[in-house]
Amino acid sequence: MSLRSRCSRICSNAIHRPSIYFNASQTPSKVNPVWQTCRSVASTPSAEKALFPGALNSEFTNTLEFLRPSNKKSIPTYRVVDQYGGVINKEMGVETEDEEALVLYRNMVCLSIMDLLMFEAQRQGRLSFYMVSAGEEGIAVGSASVLNPADVVFCQYRETGVYMQRGFTLDEFMNQLFSNSQDAGRGRNMPVHYGSKKLNIHTVSSTLATQIPHAAGAAYAIKLQNMQNPEIEPRIVVCYFGEGAASEGDFHAALNIAATRQVPAVFICRNNGYAISTPTSDQYRGDGIASRGAGYGIPTLRVDGNDIFAVRRATREARKLALENGGQPVLMEMMAYRVGHHSTSDDSFAYRQKIEVEDWKRRDNPITRLRKWLEGRQLWDEDKERELRSRTRKEILAAFDRAEKLKKPAIRHAFGDVWEDLTEEQRMHVEELRDILRRYPKEYDVDQHEGGVESLDELLAAKSTK
Amino acid sequence: MTAASPPIRVLSRYLLRPQAPFHFHSRCQHLARSQRNSSAVAGARLNNSVEYDSTPILHHTSRTALQNPELPEDVRKGQTKRINLYTAVNDALRHALQTDERTLVFGEDVQFGGVFRCTMNLASDFGTERVFNTPLSEQGLVGFAIGAASEGMRPVAEIQFADYVFPAFDQIVNEASKYRYRSGTTGVHCGGLVIRMPTGVVGHGALYHSQSPEVLFSHTPGLRVVIPRSPTQAKGLLLSAIRTNDPVIFMEPKVLYRAAVEQVPVSPYYLPLDKAEVLKQGKDITIVSYGTPLYTCSAAIAAAEKDFGCSVELIDLRTIYPWDRATVLESVKKTGRAIVVHESMMNAGVGAEVAATIQEKAFLRLEAPVKRVTGWATHTGLIYEKFIIPDVTRVYDAIKQTLDY
């Protein structure tokens, strides 16, 4: 088989060919991207381009010069307001209504107060685990605020602000943290592993970066659904992860497949300088995460994550870009500093100076920067601040008390939802557990759980586990 | 080269990943049949080539194919056609793509038809939005499939060889299997997911084209693990795998892709995902196996019944997990003796689980220890395959030893 016929085979396959279920007229018209360009592979001695199939646009050169990243300028960081809350491009402004800015501010403050209280609650032993978002509230709240509520979100775990901005209630947070009977996760997940079907946010799993290829696949599903139902507003998928998670193979796999399948997804990396104790200098040697985007053929932007206006404008544009030409992935690296400890199981002063953290807290963080902007517009003052903090604290503590008083989920939920229906093997195991619980009642705290041992009877009697 | 020849890209792939059923000409089919035991020793009585043309494992006539009581009435009244296992897989995928627009078929080299031809003509008939190549990344394509399933699609992802599923192990064990459980009342799951992979030895697959990693998935709650033995089973079980709302690991014995040819109902039909099948009734001893070794067992049983005058019951597990304890136990309680046969190694293999269950639930009926005939505790070195994988002689001898105990 000649190389020429091989080329024609590739091209005939690569041509955008709608399936029998999709009307060709519904498919957005496309400019022919480079990977669809077919040309003769045989190169002549005078050809200016190499025409190797692996890099069709490469030109020959007589200069032996390695591409050295160290010689390149670092990718710039996009910002809209400076660290004193001053708008840099006055003509363009911030594209955010005053009332909207106040909502963003209240949500960020609420998140930071909830973090403080829950961190303390864990220290008192009332929660098993917690992770704060300190320093990164602007990334989560800001990006979520410009998404369509129907856009599907995949989180890592430090994106509590996304849930808050989308309408996850304080009760829902507390129910999850306490693993009580009202927890959507039925008490199965560690604290902070939130999920909400209503808000189109997939449930968090502890495994790092696994959600990135999920987002690519979900975005592909949504791309096909967008094509099938042109009447509904097109949707995208947004996926969050830290700069440490970006070292996982799943990051590479996901961005590559997202690019080859051209999926409408926005990948948001929170680069906060640390992965637990590991500084970025031990994480990578390139220009952060953003520099990798071009390698995958993905439009990329680096953003000041402490500037909620920059985060919002960037995310809004990224969303538009993701829907262009029938869909394409976009990568954004949002720069921040992890002000808090990695988690309640971590003391970060074992690997970084307290002064460094204090500097970041004082010098620049997303909440004070927005507050300075609000104060500059006479929208905020010390009284309002005091009132907001006191009210928010009370609301959180009230939800905390409600959640702490609720019973734990029924024991039957230990077995449900593994398969769609209970298997015969599970049935045997439930019977054995029930027998043990009945014969050793003093050894187990069954009464903390809704329905006690009887919930296992219900499970065995029910046809389905749901 | 004829039109059926592989593109040069695939040829080079084959040089990197050599395996047996590389027969793109239909006339090579007959060669493939005797591939597995082509090294049979002259004068050997037991270790002969598998007689796929006459084995009782396969339906050689339309009449026997349609007698299967598991088939619905209308299918039993319908037509059959004589096809091999890869065509049966193709039939099932075609039906799923035709009847449910949520179905997607993808993996490495799937678009041109697949290196084992299982996805032949699907891209041209259903479009490259639904049948497509992915980059060469198992963790990527499985993660992608989980994400697509979590948003309501029914992806059928292909891992080119079961030997290469390990990069996706995290995605399968930590994500696919736990998605529904961790999502709780949100009800989100990835149950539309099927991961297909060619499995088992093939004559000269050596270390990385021979493995049977089913037990690694049967140690994970939330997954279904299915291994068909024949074209009829492949079609019915794959259609059920695509239809079920649980993620399924669907392992296709690659040596059977071309070798196993039988009459298969033309209409679509669904076979149960939690039922073993008694392939042959017997009263003295029960053999439990699945996939390719069933052909070995069948030949060994024929010789043993003739030589020892015994009667052997043969059970195809079909679904490795969740598996059908009732059928196995009912049989062993009747026969009092059991042998488990599989290609993968003995330690913590499927045989360990089956033997332990028999010991626990049929202790008083056992007249001999449960014998396991499996791959040895070594890797499948290229030229040693015939010494490592259970063959007719070893199964024959296991029957003898178990009867004599």
Automatic annotation (TrEMBL), chain A:
<dbReference type="GO" id="GO:0046872">
    <property type="term" value="F:metal ion binding"/>
</dbReference>
<dbReference type="InterPro" id="IPR029061">
    <property type="entry name" value="THDP-binding"/>
</dbReference>
<keyword id="KW-0786">Thiamine pyrophosphate</keyword>
<dbReference type="GO" id="GO:0003863">
    <property type="term" value="F:branched-chain 2-oxo acid dehydrogenase activity"/>
</dbReference>
<comment type="function">
    <text>The branched-chain alpha-keto dehydrogenase complex catalyzes the overall conversion of alpha-keto acids to acyl-CoA and CO(2). It contains multiple copies of three enzymatic components: branched-chain alpha-keto acid decarboxylase (E1), lipoamide acyltransferase (E2) and lipoamide dehydrogenase (E3).</text>
</comment>
<comment type="similarity">
    <text>Belongs to the BCKDHA family.</text>
</comment>
<keyword id="KW-0560">Oxidoreductase</keyword>
<keyword id="KW-0630">Potassium</keyword>
<keyword id="KW-0809">Transit peptide</keyword>
<protein>
    <recommendedName>
        <fullName>2-oxoisovalerate dehydrogenase subunit alpha</fullName>
        <ecNumber>1.2.4.4</ecNumber>
    </recommendedName>
</protein>
<feature type="domain" description="Dehydrogenase E1 component">
    <location>
        <begin position="105"/>
        <end position="411"/>
    </location>
</feature>
<dbReference type="InterPro" id="IPR001017">
    <property type="entry name" value="DH_E1"/>
</dbReference>
<keyword id="KW-0479">Metal-binding</keyword>
<dbReference type="GO" id="GO:0005759">
    <property type="term" value="C:mitochondrial matrix"/>
</dbReference>
<keyword id="KW-0496">Mitochondrion</keyword>
<dbReference type="GO" id="GO:0009083">
    <property type="term" value="P:branched-chain amino acid catabolic process"/>
</dbReference>
<dbReference type="InterPro" id="IPR050771">
    <property type="entry name" value="Alpha-ketoacid_DH_E1_comp"/>
</dbReference>
<dbReference type="Pfam" id="PF00676">
    <property type="entry name" value="E1_dh"/>
</dbReference>
From TrEMBL, chain B:
<keyword id="KW-0560">Oxidoreductase</keyword>
<dbReference type="InterPro" id="IPR029061">
    <property type="entry name" value="THDP-binding"/>
</dbReference>
<dbReference type="GO" id="GO:0007584">
    <property type="term" value="P:response to nutrient"/>
</dbReference>
<feature type="domain" description="Transketolase-like pyrimidine-binding">
    <location>
        <begin position="83"/>
        <end position="259"/>
    </location>
</feature>
<dbReference type="GO" id="GO:0009083">
    <property type="term" value="P:branched-chain amino acid catabolic process"/>
</dbReference>
<dbReference type="InterPro" id="IPR005475">
    <property type="entry name" value="Transketolase-like_Pyr-bd"/>
</dbReference>
<dbReference type="GO" id="GO:0006091">
    <property type="term" value="P:generation of precursor metabolites and energy"/>
</dbReference>
<protein>
    <recommendedName>
        <fullName>3-methyl-2-oxobutanoate dehydrogenase (2-methylpropanoyl-transferring)</fullName>
        <ecNumber>1.2.4.4</ecNumber>
    </recommendedName>
</protein>
<dbReference type="Pfam" id="PF02780">
    <property type="entry name" value="Transketolase_C"/>
</dbReference>
<dbReference type="GO" id="GO:0003863">
    <property type="term" value="F:branched-chain 2-oxo acid dehydrogenase activity"/>
</dbReference>
<dbReference type="InterPro" id="IPR009014">
    <property type="entry name" value="Transketo_C/PFOR_II"/>
</dbReference>
<dbReference type="Pfam" id="PF02779">
    <property type="entry name" value="Transket_pyr"/>
</dbReference>
<dbReference type="InterPro" id="IPR033248">
    <property type="entry name" value="Transketolase_C"/>
</dbReference>
